[in-house]
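Write out the 3D structure for:
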Amino acid sequence: MLAMADITEPYPDVPSRTPGNEEIVDPTIPEGNAEQVTIRRHPFGIVVLYLQAIVGLGVALGLIYFLIPGLLSAENTVQANHYLTIFATAAVALTTIFLLIATAIYRQNKWVVTDDSITQFTQSGIFRRQISELSMANIEDVSSEQFGILAELFGFGTLKVETAGERSNFHFIYCPQPNKYSKIILDARERFINEEPEVAKRANDLLSVPRA
């Protein structure tokens, strides 16, 4: 009697789906697009807001502490200083909370540049956000501007993307290294046009059609 050999087909290796090796997908990047770069605003913009808040708070508290006690009698000065201390503590706490919220909102403003589009995220309030997307085929020109000694010294400026037709242009203030990112977007646009010439041509034809 011949013995039957137990032949088992080897199964292909299947990666285990554990939390440690799951692929992390950025939800802000449109599916199917390869991300080139994410541009966030330069910290200089929020530092200016910090300085304005701190100077304004300091001047207001200084005037209150120096002027109000002089208008009161001696017996009321101690009590007035007590209330002024409470007021100053509350003002500092509220200013700190305001600056933390402002920083979070400021950081949410960004551009996501992919291989075929630019997505602009504009956060102008806690509950106010606007998302705009622009195809590389619709980009007509990309430029950068730096004005003043501070912009040159700290390396920030305005990045501008101009479109053909009646589409709104994209402007990104307090952009770090605007010349560098301008070149990145221009190179991405050039690659897109070379790889998808028909798509770019159709997009430009549509923009050139006058609206009724």
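The mean pLDDT is 79.
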